[in-house]
Amino acid sequence: MSTADAEFGSGEVLVRTLTDSAGLMRKAERVVVQEAIERFSKRFPQLFFAVYTCVLRETTNLREFGFWLLNRGVFEDFARHRLNAAGILLVMDVEGKAAGITYGYLLDPYLDEDDTFQCLSKAHPYWLDRRPDQGIVALLKTLEKILKKKSRATRKGLENFERKVTQPPQMGDLVKRIRSGHVHNATHKQDAATSTAREEECK
Fold first, then answer.
1. pTM of this structure
2. Cα–Cα distance between 123 and 33 in angstroms, integer?
3. Which residues contact 186 (CB under 8 A, 6 or more apart)?
4. pLDDT, tens digit, 9 for 90 and up, residues 91-108
5. Using CA atoms, how far apart are residues 176 and 203, in angstroms rounded to an integer?
6. CB atoms within 10 A of CB 82
7. Domains of the chain (ranges plus CATH)?
């Protein structure tokens, strides 16, 4: 976390669950996305989903930025009882034509890298067609299906989804750039966001 703080800052960042700082979406598209976020919130009241669009410097690591923002972000339109550790953040880099998902450590039993890649893959065709709102809606629908399936399995007590409390949270093999094929690995401890971020081209 100290590396990310050194690059992006160590203070809290006030954001909303939909922050279109890059101006990617028209007003009507933002309404569609906000409604999808609110539906997700009602179906999973213990969690929250957020979208942040931006223009990152070429040297900025998208995965690291998402990790930092989920830890430092204060999502003003969500109740304080929803911890960032229970958040799922989609970051879309408009200039870099890439998107990544970062989620908090409380979701470790329910999500993994393959799951987030599946979500991004569902959104990809819409993003190629310059329909960012519909891509995010498709992503959320896929995410909901995955969470429901994993939560049912957890309630049944399947050991495959039990959190290994003896191990520190790890980022693992987190980010794969579709265009370059580069994979970045990092380990972080005792932070809200400790899980997967995958990148997908979103031309």
1. 0.78
2. 13
3. 63, 64, 171, 174
4. 999 999 999 999 999 999
5. 16
6. 15
7. 2-201 (3.10.310.50)
